[in-house]
Structures are given as C-alpha cells and as structure tokens.
Specification:
The protein is mainly alpha-helical and about 180 residues long. It contains 6 helices and 2 strands. The chain is about 75% helix and about 5% strand. The two termini are about 40 Å apart.
Length: about 180
C-alpha cells in the first residue's frame, strides 16, 4: 500500500507538470482546438516520461534497480504509451460529447470563464491520464522495476537491499551486534 501511495504522489507531481505543458500547448500553440488534443497529449507525455523515470527510480521503487534492461523496458513502454495508447485514448475520449457539454453547462451556470474547447480538452486529458496511470503502475511494478534489488556497498561489503525498512532493521541489528561485541 505504501508503494501505491508513493506512486500516486509522484504521479500527481508528474501529472501537474504534464498538464501544465499540455495546457500551454493546447491554449497557446493550438488555439484551444480540441482536434489537436492527441498531439498535445503525446508531446506533453514525452516530457512526463523522462521526469517519471527519474522520480519513480528515486522515490517509488528506490530499493529496486531497474538495471539497463529495466531502463530500456521503461522507455519502450512509455514510447508505446505516448505514441499509440495515449493518443488512441484521447481520440476515444473525444467521443462522449454530451459529457463535455454537460460539464460546460455547469461551468457556465457557476460563471467560470472556461470556453467549451477548454472544458472538452481538459476532460479528454483527465480521462486519458487516469487510464494511463493504472496501466503505468501495472507495467512498472511487474515489468520495469520487477524484483531486481539494489546492491549497496557498506563498509567494504555488498548487501542486498530488499526494502528500505528491511535495510534499516539490518543496520540496527548490525549496530547492536557491534555494541554487544564491545561489551
């Protein structure tokens, strides 16, 4: 459960970065044209992919070493996600026009300054991102970061670190054993 919470936290950070890029692309470069959502989704996803690998390696799966093959798997999966899956999802999520019209009516009723294209492109983005995050977690957990654990060198010897908690317990045991030996 702890890993899922870390994944969600890192994912939210990455999503904020990605959404900012997506919004800049959609509103400034593509003039709010919802037909450009698949391209904006793909481009913002590339930046998010790089940030995601760094953050997930350092935070979510920090006790695991993806190794060179894991890095290749990560980027291969994300290229597939960015190039095919996300644009396909974005195109699919363009279809529920009634949902976006309803959201736009609510937006107008409460006097929010959002144009219909913004409401629609945001809806497309949110739905695409939600499905992508579930797919990412499954792929990262089972394929990319797998079960390979990091090897750390401590005091001239290599130890296998299976989890941060286990490593801390092992360190405490070693310190206690050293203290007992000194007595």
């Amino acid at each position: 459960m702890k890993r899922v919470l870390k994944f969600i936290g890192v994912g939210l950070t990455i999503t904020l970065i990605e959404y900012t890029i997506y919004t800049v692309l959609m509103m400034l470069m593509f003039g709010g044209n919802a037909e450009m959502a698949p391209l904006a989704t793909g481009l913002s996803g590339v930046v998010a992919m790089i940030v995601a690998f760094i953050m997930h390696s350092k935070i979510t799966w920090r006790e695991r070493d993806p190794g060179k093959l894991g890095i290749v798997k990560f980027f291969a999966w994300n290229v597939l996600l960015v190039a095919l899956i996300r644009p396909g999802l974005a195109a699919f999520f363009e279809l529920p026009v009634g949902l976006y019209q309803f959201a736009f009516m609510i937006s107008e009723a409460i006097h929010l300054p959002f144009a219909y294209d913004f409401v629609q492109s945001t809806g497309i983005y949110v739905l695409t991102t939600a499905v992508s995050m579930v797919l990412n977690y499954i792929c990262y957990e089972k394929i990319v970061f797998g079960t390979t654990v990091k090897i750390e060198k401590k005091q001239g010897k290599e130890i296998k670190v299976e989890s941060v908690r286990q490593a801390r317990k092992e360190e405490k045991r070693e310190r206690k054993a050293e203290q007992d030996a000194k007595k």
